[in-house]
Design brief:
mainly alpha, single chain, globular
Length: 341
């Protein structure tokens, strides 16, 4: 399953079973809410990554950092098909304005709006209006608008628009099943993004052995923390020094940072249990088993053991589990139920 693909099907309109509570949520609404949460989270993460990479590239003449953005999104083949030579300008355009690239912020915001269109009966007018304004402002941007240092202001606009959406949704959406599916999408996307970020630092930006611990190495880890919106939170937990194990541990196994893998996994567990216990939904059992497996793997090993055993392999395993969770949610909640003859 391609996690970057939208799943909106008019045929998928059966109500999700809600036990004896008799409170139904159409499956296509639940599906669209999950993807609305994912797409907005993805747009914000991409904007943070582009902004930090742009800032970092000002002190580095090579295109290694920009190559890492392409690799992070697994877009190497798609990018090369339209851009034989990798340049900063090409990557910025590819991820900000390219309407043919499903990973671009423009495409992501467009997909969020299309999901919101499906959700008009259950969304507040404030959420719908803000997403429309957000998309319309993105749609009129031209290459000149993202030239040079303008890319930082555009990324700030995207980030602030995503945060505005989150605030409006938080203040207007009823705390019911739909809210749980929306937040399931948000935390699935956060977990996906944080594992990709940590993996790319270890395998793309890893400096030469003699560079480990130097200013170049430290600045890359700082850039990673800023891309995850975690620099100041990290400094609160670790006022002195910065090293790969501490940063990786903070982003993966810290229980209090809201974008860490551990935090996101706990929230996924809570949300699915709420859907089953508070709203009486019968699905989600298989996804909970996978989440329990992930939580046990996080809790039973420290970051030093994870790195020693192979960080890339560990993150690959986590990515596979996240796909399993998404597949399970589709099997249990979103796929049409075969009609009886």
């Amino acid at each position: 399953m391609n996690q970057h693909q939208a799943y909106i099907t008019e045929a998928n309109a059966s109500p999700i079973e809600a036990g004896n509570r008799n409170r139904f949520l159409l499956a296509r609404y639940a599906e669209a809410l999950l993807w609305l949460g994912r797409y907005v989270e993805r747009a914000e993460s991409t904007a943070r990554l582009l902004s930090v990479t742009h800032t970092f590239s000002q002190h580095n003449s090579s295109n290694t950092s920009w190559q890492s953005v392409v690799s992070l999104n697994a877009d190497d083949e798609r990018f090369k098909a339209t851009h034989p030579v990798l340049t900063q300008e090409a990557v910025k355009h590819f991820y900000l304005l390219d309407s043919e690239n499903p990973s671009s912020i423009l495409s992501t915001v467009r997909n969020a709006r299309e999901n919101a269109r499906t959700l008009r009966p259950v969304l507040s007018s404030e959420v719908w209006t803000q997403l429309n304004v957000f998309y319309n402002r993105m749609a009129v941007l031209r290459p000149l608008d993202i030239a040079d240092n303008n890319v930082v202001s555009i990324c700030n606009f995207v980030r602030e628009s995503c945060q505005s959406h989150t605030g409006i949704a938080d203040g207007t959406f009823p705390r019911d099943q739909g809210w749980s599916f929306y937040r399931l999408g948000k935390f699935l996307e956060r977990a996906d993004q944080i594992t990709r970020l940590v993996d790319i630092k270890y395998h793309i930006l890893l400096p030469r052995v003699e560079d480990v611990g130097t200013a170049v190495d430290v600045s890359q880890w700082q850039a990673l923390l800023r891309a995850a919106a975690g620099y100041h939170a990290f400094r609160r937990a670790h006022p002195r020094g910065i090293d790969p194990l501490t940063v990786a541990g903070f982003l993966l196994v810290n229980n209090s940072f809201p974008r860490s893998l551990s935090f996101c996994t706990t929230r996924l567990d809570n949300l699915l249990n709420d859907l089953r216990m508070q709203y009486g939904l019968r699905g989600g059992g298989k996804a909970l088993e996978v989440i329990d497996e992930m939580r046990a793997a996080i809790a039973s090993r420290g970051i030093d053991v994870i790195v020693a055993d192979g960080l890339h392999e560990y993150l690959d395993w986590v990515q596979s589990r996240l796909i399993d969770i998404t597949d399970s949610l589709y099997d249990d909640f979103f796929r049409p139920t075969p009609q009886q003859a």
